[in-house]
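Workshop exercise sheet. Pairs work together: one partner reads the sequence aloud, the other fills in the structure field after running the prediction. Swap roles for the next sheet.
Pair: D.N. / O.F.
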Amino acid sequence: MSGRPLALVVEDSADQTALLRRHLDREGFDVFAAADAESAIAAFDTISPVVAVVDLLLPGITGAECAGFVRTRFPECFLIVSSVLDATDYPEADAALPKPIVGADLRGILRGIAR
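Structure field:
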């Protein structure tokens, strides 16, 4: 273990995952990435994220449902939802990150998170 805080990324786009991984790494996070909610949930026993970025449009279990599972399992985790959907359609979260993702927006959100 690197001793860096862990970020959970639940995103079905490989390009978006790579972008988030790069920005989160620059901000001092290790990243656990899952391509769908089921994979993320399966890892819950082995991870302890301080921040989670969840895409709302996922195959299988929806991103909104996944966000709810993250919130229940890790109540102290800072939850960021991301989507191309209109922000008024986002579920309750600590922050919203509309797509296309802009690094400055993510950095601004992450700067306010206690690590």
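Discussion prompt: The chain has four helices and five strands. What would you look at next?
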